[in-house]
Each structure stands twice: as C-alpha cells, then as structure tokens.
Amino acid sequence: MISKSQLRFKRIFDVVLVVLCLPLLFIPILLLVLIATIDTKTWGIYSQLRVGQYGKLFKIYKIRTLADGEHQLGGLNNHATCIGRFLRRSKLNELPQLYNVFIGDMSLVGPRPDLPGFADTLNGKNRIILMVKPGITGPASIKYRDEEALLAQQKDPERYNRAIIWVDKVKINKKYVENYSFYLDLILILKSLIHK
C-alpha cells in the first residue's frame, strides 16, 4: 500500500514536472482557450466540482467543449462541438488540470476525479482509493480512454456506467493504490503520452 513517504515524493515529482512543462504549454493552452471561447461562444474554460483526496471537493478546470448552454449527461458528448469532440478525443481539453496539479488538488497519475455521488460513496476497503489525489491519467483512464464511445453504444449509458464501468474502475484504482510504485507512475505517464 502507498506510504506517506511515497505520497510526499509523488507530490514533489508532480510539482517539478509541472513547473518544467508549464512554460512550454502555457501559450498552447491560451490558444486552445481562445479557440474554445470562439467555438462555444462562451468562456473557453469551465470548472466543475469533483471529489478529491480524502473525499474533499475541489474545482477541476477543463477547456470547454460543449456548445453554450449545453450540459454533459451520462458521460456522453452528444452536444460537443466538432472542435470539442477533437479536444476530448485527444485529451487536450484536460491540459488546464496541470494547474490543479500545481496547486495540489490533483496528481499527474491517479484515479480520475469523479463527480459527487461516486468516489465519495466508497465504503470499507474501497476507501483506500481516496488516500491518493485524483490524477490526469491513471490505470483506469488508460483502460477506458474510449469511454464516451463505449457509453454511446449502450441503451442506458448512466446505468451501464454505474453498474459496469464504475465497478471495474474501483477494482483497478484499488489495485493501483495497493501496489503503488514510482516506476508504475512513470509507466502510466509513458503509456498515456504514447497513445496521444
């Protein structure tokens, strides 16, 4: 199981990598925000409450991908603009989360931050997942990188998400925390970058 010293080292690694990456990504992020603002006809960054480490709520930041006035339902992007769908497929809409990592709400690697009603309802041994900060990428994120397409094929996406995908993600994320190593984080980061 992940130790306090591993959590501290994980945090140091996150900060160092983000500090090194942000100067290179700052202008591209600004350009994507500008494009999203024009494309969606509203401010190109949006925030949403998510469940973080120890069940604490925080605001996650993403580049907006939905048309003005639309809301995401059931994990689907039916109302995403053409550019928005590209940003989601490429995961470029998640670049502002580097700020979440920098301020300590998130980690580069960990369970994806869930909406209230999922991670905050964990009980028993499954609550071990809340020991770590949610991540931009992680083992469950990599397995379900095409989650939206999978949900789009279901008659009842919300039910399928809760009964099948969420249950599997809990098992994957629990295993990640129980068998944590810095080497594992490096492998997961590389897998995420190679896929992109």
Automatic annotation (TrEMBL):
Pfam families cross-referenced by the UniProt entry: Bac_transf
Domain (Bacterial sugar transferase): residue spans on this chain: 10-193
Coiled-coil zones: none
PANTHER family listed in its UniProt record: COLANIC BIOSYNTHESIS UDP-GLUCOSE LIPID CARRIER TRANSFERASE, QUINOVOSAMINEPHOSPHOTRANSFERAE-RELATED
Species: Winogradskyella sediminis
GO molecular function, a single term: phosphotransferase activity, for other substituted phosphate groups
Lineage: Bacteria, Pseudomonadati, Bacteroidota, Flavobacteriia, Flavobacteriales
Protein name: Sugar transferase involved in LPS biosynthesis (Colanic, teichoic acid)
UniProtKB keywords: Membrane, Transferase, Transmembrane, Transmembrane helix
